[in-house]
Write a structure and sequence with these properties.
Radius of gyration: 12 Å
Mean pLDDT: 87
Number of helices: 4
Number of strands: 0
Low-confidence stretches: none
Helix content: 55-70%
Order of helices and strands: HHHH
Largest sheet: none
Distance between the termini: 28 Å
Number of domains: 1
């Protein structure tokens, strides 16, 4: 598995968010939804050769990043 560039990781995450984030801001339990999204994102990233550590190095804490994106709305 080769290390991905920052741009590749950011692009993957942005595309993933565009598909999975819409409607999440209406979730009754946002913290639980963020946990679910984080698990799904990291699983999909691993399937595409991107580690959770690589995402963390680019975005910071995944839960914090997703929480902020949920508060702001979809991509």
């Amino acid at each position: 598995m080769s290390k991905r560039s920052t741009a590749e990781i950011e692009s993957f995450v942005q595309q993933w968010l565009a598909r999975h984030l819409p409607g999440v801001t209406d979730a009754p339990n946002l913290a639980a939804e963020v946990d679910r999204l984080a698990a799904h994102l990291t699983g999909d990233a691993r399937a595409n050769g991107i580690s959770g550590g690589e995402i963390h190095s680019v975005l910071g804490d995944i839960d914090d990043y997703l929480s902020e994106r949920c508060r702001r709305g979809a991509a």
